[in-house]
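sorry for the late reply, my laptop died twice this morning and i had to redo everyting from scratch. anyway the thing you sent over, i finally got around to it. pasting the sequence first so we're on the same page, its 134 residues, then the predicted structure underneath. double check i copied it right bc i was rushing
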Amino acid sequence: MLQPRREQKNVMKGMAQRGNQLAFGSFGLKTLENCWITAQQIESARQAISRHMNREGQIWIRIFPVKPFTKKPLDTRMGKGKGDPQGFVAPVTPGRILFEADGVSLATAKEAMRLASHKLPIATKFVVRRDYVE
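ok and here's the structure:
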């Protein structure tokens, strides 16, 4: 008799159910993979976008790091409880919009999102609003 497969803890399955449409801007950066994105990675990507856009236009950050993660110190034996909180992460699934931008040209937004994608640990895709005209 076959046993049902048991899923491991913290396995993110499926596509994003919410936050998968452009809501504010004309351009966006969409995820293609599952990942935990740290607060430092989000801030680094935001700075890259902001600097390339020369602080013109507007940027929206659509994710927020709300999940704390812990880590045990190096050279620590097993047991003795859970590790100390190290920081916060934002769990994202494929299809989630990470950043949105508006008020700049298509070329500027595309390059800014490309620079931001290099700061993130996952594959992303540049998306444009359907009714966008230059």
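Helices lie at 39-52, 106-117.
thats about all i looked at so far, will dig more tmrw
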